[in-house]
Amino acid sequence: RPVRVSHCFNMAAVKGLRFGKHLKELRIHLCQKSPASQGVRDFIEQHYVELKQNNPKFPILIRECSGVQAKLWARYELGQENSVSLNNLGMEEVAQAVTTVS
């Protein structure tokens, strides 16, 4: 199922976000230096700790690899996966993508 990312998003939606039981894992792929991954790096710096505090046993995997395109992977029940490109998105758009897949 495709996930749409709107350009109008309230960052307060990330605060207190608890993932539903249908979601089993989040993986975030990004490049450490690429300008196209800057929004993802900003999101991780600003919101990763809070997401882990709100979801302490939930696996949120951060995968850094030089030259990789930024992407969010969500794994659901029965092994179903969905991915969203995070390439060239700002921090707010990355936050919306995380909220949307959860």
Structural notes for this entry:
The chain has 2 helices and 4 strands; from the N terminus they run E-H-E-E-E-H. By secondary structure, it is α+β, with helices and mostly antiparallel strands. Strand 3 and strand 4 form a beta hairpin. It is globular, with a radius of gyration of 13 Å. The protein starts with 22 loop residues before the first strand and ends with a helix. The N terminus is likely disordered.
Could you write a compact summary of the structure shown?
The chain is about 25% helix and about 25% strand. The chain is of the alpha+beta class and about 100 residues long.
The average pLDDT is 88
Query: In which range does the helix fraction lie?
Result: 25-40%
- Give the overall silhouette: globular
Largest sheet: 4 strands, mixed
What is the terminal separation in angstroms? 13 Å
Highlighted features:
single chain; 102 residues; alpha+beta; four-stranded mixed β-sheet; 2 helices; 4 strands; disordered N terminus
Present the secondary structure layout.
Elements: E1 23-30, H1 38-54, E2 60-64, E3 71-76, E4 81-85, H2 91-101
Parallel strand pairs: 1-2
Antiparallel strand pairs: 1-3, 3-4
Helix pairs in contact: 1-2
